[in-house]
UniProtKB/TrEMBL annotation:
The keyword Thylakoid does not apply. Residues 31-95 form the RNA polymerase sigma-70 region domain. The keyword Hydrolase does not apply. This is RNA polymerase sigma-70 region 2 domain-containing protein. It comes from Thermobifida fusca (strain YX).
Amino acid sequence: MPLSGQTYKAACVKELVRRAADNDEAAWNALLDRYSGLVWKITRSYPLLFHDAQDITQTVLCNLAEYLTRLRTPERIGAWLATVTHNECRRHLRIHGKVQIFPAEDLDSPDHRTPESLSLVAEDVARVRSALNQLDSPEREVAHVDVYRPGLPRPRQPDWQG
């Protein structure tokens, strides 16, 4: 088996395509071994989700199986696969749009917008308002300024309060 960087002679590729079209499983597997990496590399060069790239690769290889008997120049199967792969990737991006990649650290952060967490926040706000209403007038005024103008610097907590 040739190294991955070596080129294949046109007659050899043409013969493999002919045999694969005649349902020769070994020839089909040889074509897949030679060209599935090319399809995968092209697909992964696009901003696609991993599973979308897998689906596109599978679609392209299924197209190869379907059109194998109709290739006009079977010795140029690599170029045909590259063109089909690029077209499939562009079609997918046109239909589904580009994928917005999120930093990994954002993916693991909890979502605080659950109904339970919103309910807990509402309870906390109600407790703070109730506590503010129980304060005497001068302290209540200062607390309202602190609560409703959060841009003001907070007073420094003593070390013993944590």
